[in-house]
């Protein structure tokens, strides 16, 4: 706080901050409350022509700092005084004490910008404001560290905490209970929704986090961290808590364990924004392809069990599970021709899922955190056959998927007996491998692995496989050529690939401009509950729910321009007849919901009447600008992002009978989550028969 106060009345590290004057100041008698209001003079970096047109050289802002030493909070509010009738700028910063560790400071910042009019230069003013705001955020940490260092040079390294005067202490002990420490305060939703959220927001809620299965309630417990997570700095620990809590507040699906969240943080050097983005993309991918259930529901084809030369084999010296892959003995061309790319990918995913499970088991066995595995790749027998183009293409896709969804799971990769053809393969695949992963590769040519610094440094002698000169019998299949009688045609493989990814509870549908996709649900008993869960895979759509007393005609598939369209990407069925009129033949029972590409939507509706309910996914068109016939910038950008008038959704619906429904609607809360969005803005709305929460 003392370092922050040194920014006034002016700060040489902020060239645009010319001067400031104190307008109002208030201090409470016990000095716990200190409110100071300043008028700040800023020299905005704007084009000279714009300043001349506006008729000003400087702009003035009013900044109000409210310090509460008793509750240990500092709130900073700022708004523009200059051009306040044309441009409205509001900024809110908040410093609080971490609810679980009082030695940590939480910082939140948000701002909003509303340009009503500015001499026809609205777009320019917006760009200038964004540039200045971004620049200030980036400099914030640098400035506070500068003044902290200045204080240290003056010998000030500790500031005693505020304590109430003696009289206040006596009074509070006799007539009042002790006030609790104020937790971190969230910015109001309305301000955050309208504004620009800082990428350095540390949004830590005051409510205790709910425990997840298999982990202790207190996630800050030192024993828990040492036992399950390993050495973490306070900052890394804080990043983990914040990301996990954000998931608990916004993600309606299965919350990954701390160990898995930590992998994504490590993969992005604990940059929360980047880690959150790839983690949310991975969670959406896992849900769409039902990866969580792959070990329980999918049985590998016999061809894989016989000819895929890989398997788990004990553990290395660090306790990591050891996976052995005899790539040189594997007929990659034969496997691709017999099974297709998707079956190979699914098998590799099952290996990775098994690896995660084995890491958890070894953590319990060895009593220390084990979050990755070691892979031993034997290249004896590798030749030009392995460089078959479709096989390399399949390998590159597998690497891409694994890198995106299983970061930091490879602890070490031992490549043995690399032949002369290996550099060719390495040149092809290395660009697709993350730099951090590449650092874990150890490559041995010929029999170098038997010498100093070789295999014995990483694997106990007793478990070195027999085919590498060890004494341990390895049960990994020996591979060999896949019989050509097992090869399948390109058409058969394509159909099999489509079948593999559609064998889930989800259905796929295409939505075209002028051709929505509709699902019919017949309700016999009123007060039943219709539930839905869908992902918008491509384009933007509008989701509607309608009710009709009469059944729509079944879709006709035999005539051109009829009600049903079939495409490789999914079905399109239209049930509402073109002659039907809204309000006469059918009625809308929920407000339309606009869903953006990449969003996941779950919800429910309690039915009032029996009859026929129609769930509709409709192509969303950007509304034209009312004031002018010229297209808006947003419209142009949207048209560029959606290359064709086609959307795609994956959906699942279910009806819960009234006799089976128990509890309040909170258990069936409708949520609309955009995992690709990193904004923390949250709004909520409720209706008579459903509730919805939109989190982006």
UniProtKB/TrEMBL annotation:
InterPro entries in alphabetical order: CRAL-TRIO_dom, CRAL-TRIO_dom_sf, CRAL/TRIO_N_dom, CRAL/TRIO_N_dom_sf, GOLD_dom, GOLD_dom_sf, PRELI/MSF1_dom, SEC14/CRAL-TRIO_domain
Domain CRAL-TRIO: 300-476
A Gene Ontology term for the protein's cellular component: cytosol
Keyword Lipid metabolism: no
Domain of life of the native organism: Eukaryota
Domain PRELI/MSF1: 1-156
Protein name listed in UniProt: SEC14-like protein 1
């Amino acid at each position: 706080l003392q370092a922050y106060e040194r920014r006034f009345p002016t700060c040489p590290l902020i060239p645009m901050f010319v001067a400031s004057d104190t307008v109002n100041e208030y201090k409470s008698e016990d000095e716990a409350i200190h409110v100071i209001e300043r008028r700040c003079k800023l020299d905005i970096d704007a084009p000279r022509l714009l300043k001349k047109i506006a008729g000003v050289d400087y702009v003035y802002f009013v900044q109000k700092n409210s310090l509460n030493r008793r509750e240990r909070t500092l709130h900073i509010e700022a708004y523009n005084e200059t051009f306040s009738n044309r441009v409205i700028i509001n900024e809110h910063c908040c410093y609080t004490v971490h609810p679980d560790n009082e030695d940590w400071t939480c910082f939140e910042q948000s701002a909003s910008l509303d340009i009503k009019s500015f001499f026809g230069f609205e777009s320019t003013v917006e760009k200038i404001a964004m540039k200045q705001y971004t620049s200030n955020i980036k400099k914030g940490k640098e400035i506070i560290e500068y003044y902290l260092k200045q204080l240290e040079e003056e010998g000030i390294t500790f500031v005693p905490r505020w304590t109430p005067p003696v009289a206040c202490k006596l009074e509070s002990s006799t007539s009042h209970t002790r006030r609790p420490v104020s937790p971190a305060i969230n910015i109001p939703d309305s301000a955050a929704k309208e504004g620009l959220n800082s990428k350095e927001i540390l949004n830590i809620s005051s409510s205790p986090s709910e425990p997840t299965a298999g982990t202790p309630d207190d996630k800050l417990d030192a024993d828990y961290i040492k036992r399950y997570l390993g050495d973490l700095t306070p900052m890394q620990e804080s990043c983990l808590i914040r990301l996990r809590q954000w998931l608990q507040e916004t993600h309606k699906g299965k919350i990954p364990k701390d160990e898995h969240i930590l992998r994504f943080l490590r993969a992005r050097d604990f940059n929360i924004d980047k880690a959150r983005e790839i983690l949310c993309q991975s969670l959406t991918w896992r849900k769409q392809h039902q990866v969580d259930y792959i070990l329980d529901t999918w049985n590998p084809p016999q061809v894989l069990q016989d000819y895929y030369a890989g398997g788990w084999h004990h553990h290395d010296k660090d306790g990591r599970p050891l996976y052995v892959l005899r790539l040189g003995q594997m007929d990659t061309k034969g496997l691709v021709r017999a099974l297709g790319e998707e079956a190979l990918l699914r098998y590799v995913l099952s290996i990775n899922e098994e690896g995660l499970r084995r890491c958890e088991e070894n953590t319990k066995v060895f009593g220390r955190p084990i979050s990755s595995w070691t892979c031993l790749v034997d290249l004896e027998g590798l030749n030009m056959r392995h460089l078959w183009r479709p096989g390399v293409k399949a390998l590159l896709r597998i690497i891409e998927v694994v890198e995106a969804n299983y970061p930091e799971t490879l602890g070490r990769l031992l490549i043995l007996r690399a032949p002369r053809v290996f550099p060719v393969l390495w040149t092809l695949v290395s660009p697709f491998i993350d730099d951090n992963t590449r650092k874990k590769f150890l490559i041995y040519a010929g029999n170098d692995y038997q010498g100093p610094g070789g295999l014995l440094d990483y694997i106990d002698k007793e478990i070195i496989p027999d085919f590498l000169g060890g004494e341990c019998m390895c049960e990994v299949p020996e591979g060999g050529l896949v019989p050509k009688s097992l090869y399948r045609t390109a058409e058969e493989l394509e159909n099999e690939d489509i079948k593999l990814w559609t064998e889930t509870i989800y259905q796929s549908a295409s939505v075209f401009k002028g051709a929505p996709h509709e699902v019919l649900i017949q309700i016999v008993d009123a007060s039943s509950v219709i539930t839905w869960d869908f992902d918008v895979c491509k384009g933007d759509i509008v989701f509607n729910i309608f009710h009709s007393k009469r059944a729509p005609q079944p879709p006709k598939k035999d005539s051109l321009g009829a009600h049903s369209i079939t495409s490789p990407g999914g079905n399109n069925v239209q049930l509402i007849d073109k002659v039907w009129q809204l309000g006469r033949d059918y009625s809308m029972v929920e407000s339309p919901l606009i869903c953006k590409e990449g969003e996941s939507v779950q919800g429910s509706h309690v039915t009032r009447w029996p009859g026929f309910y129609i769930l509709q996914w409709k192509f969303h068109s950007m509304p034209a600008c009312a004031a002018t016939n010229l297209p808006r910038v947003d419209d142009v950008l949207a048209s560029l992002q959606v290359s064709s008038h086609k959307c795609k959704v994956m959906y699942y619906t279910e009806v819960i009978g009234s006799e089976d429904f128990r509890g309040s609607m909170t258990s069936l809360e409708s949520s609309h989550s955009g995992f690709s969005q990193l904004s923390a803005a949250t709004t909520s709305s409720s209706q008579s028969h459903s509730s919805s929460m939109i989190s982006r």
